[in-house]
Design a protein that fits this description.
Blueprint (H helix, E strand, L loop, with lengths): L2 H18 L3 H6 L9 E3 L7 E2 L1 H14 E17 L2 E14 L10 E14 L2 E11 L2 H16 L5
Parallel strand pairs: 1-6
Antiparallel strand pairs: 1-2, 3-4, 4-5, 5-6
């Protein structure tokens, strides 16, 4: 793995860790704060979130909607496309419990997404300015979930 890939994988892992703790200020610090029109496209958003006002409104709503969030990232790649611009891709699985009345049992929901991000080299390191999540198709998620469940039920069947 190249130094660039290690550096970007570390940044992604820090970004994902901020999501789990709902540390949206920490997430924001990993973005290029000088960019007036950053773009965030979460898989569940119907339209791109363009600009800080839209992104911060989305993050504020996330604090209210989610009670817990766990995420894992894997398969990190990074490729410089200009001296100060890098294209990164990675896979992510998230598991969330939505907020609601305590007396109603809540089960977690999850999804697998593929992420493409553009990062800009800044004095403080690489920073996001464009991040787009794309869901893995439902059939692939169903097959993977079925395989995981079979492995849980019959661990020696491999």
């Amino acid at each position: 793995m190249s130094d660039l890939q290690i550096e970007i994988a570390d940044l992604v892992k820090r970004y994902v860790a901020c999501s789990e703790t709902m540390d949206f200020e920490g997430k924001k610090r990993l973005w290029d704060l000088d960019d007036p029109l950053p773009l965030l496209m979460p898989e569940e958003a119907h339209t791109p979130l363009v600009g800080w006002k839209a992104i911060e409104a989305y993050w504020s709503k996330s604090r209210v909607v989610m009670e817990t969030l766990k995420s894992q990232s894997a398969n990190h790649t990074a490729r410089k496309i200009d001296s100060d611009i890098t294209l990164a891709t990675y896979d992510m699985r998230w598991i969330a419990t939505l907020a609601g009345p305590k007396e109603i049992p809540r089960k977690p929901i999850s999804a697998d997404v593929r992420v493409t991000a553009l990062l800009r080299q800044k004095p403080e390191g690489w920073r996001f300015f464009h991040l787009m999540e794309g869901p893995v198709d439902l059939m692939a998620m169903t097959r993977a979930a079925s395989a995981r469940r079979a492995e849980e039920l019959f661990p020696s069947s491999r």
